[in-house]
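Lecture 7 notes: from sequence to structure.

We start with a single chain of 282 residues. Read the sequence below before looking at the structure.
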Amino acid sequence: MAQSQAVQQRPKEYGRSATTTGRSPNPTDWLIGWKPLFWGCALIMAANIFLWFWNYEFAFTAGLNSASPEFSLYYRTLFWGELLSLGVFTGIWYGWLIRTGREMVGQQCARAEEVRRIAILWSIIGATSLSIYIEASFWPNWDGSWHQTMVRDTALTPTHIPMFYFFFPLSVILALGAFIYGRFRIPELYSRDKGFPWSFFLLISAAVFECMQVAFNEWGHSLWISEEFFAAPFHWPFVTYGWLASGMFSVWGETILRLFEIEKAEEVATTDTHFRPHAVAD
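Now the structure, written as tokens:
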């Protein structure tokens, strides 16, 4: 009877049956709490690899003249495809997060379920980290070498389109989505009455600042210094972006502290149950 009640009380969101090993699933199992990390990073890498091979195939054949029909076919189409796909993804994901999150407001959350939600928040932050790493490492290197040898005739170049118009906004979307997730699903840390957390302020500011820096960067290269050398003055603000992005470590830090609190509450509950005196019948 006790076992059946435990199964009924188990949070439905992370599992209702035993695993193939014969034990009950835990909120931090690889395919429960961490599944969004694998899927999210896999999709980001798949998009990155697709854009790599797209440039390998078309950069020198269709990407040199922005006025050519080939450029419009292969790169302006890619540009609009990126913006539309990100817009659709954002609308669906944010809509789902807010709709389901509002249903959770005021509801009690079991400790195991809160651990699972923290694992999912870490997964979203991990995917955000991957997106930021890609946009700040591989593509800037390719972009610098491209524009050092090929004179840009528009802001829409073969290296700008994947970097500036896909990965930059994607990082903003993921960072803001992580905050929306935490706001509704981890109220002990991010509920409305606790204000706006500095950790997410730093992380979201980093992603937004990077998008704003793009406009300043293009202005500088178009009207000031055309060469793409690393120490150009209008590249300096990118350092600030790197500092702000360290806010993701603040998110991990404050959720780690919350995990310690959950563990302590679990130990106290277990101790109280173990030493609670049995009722004596009259």
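The radius of gyration is 24 Å. Keep this in mind for problem set 3.
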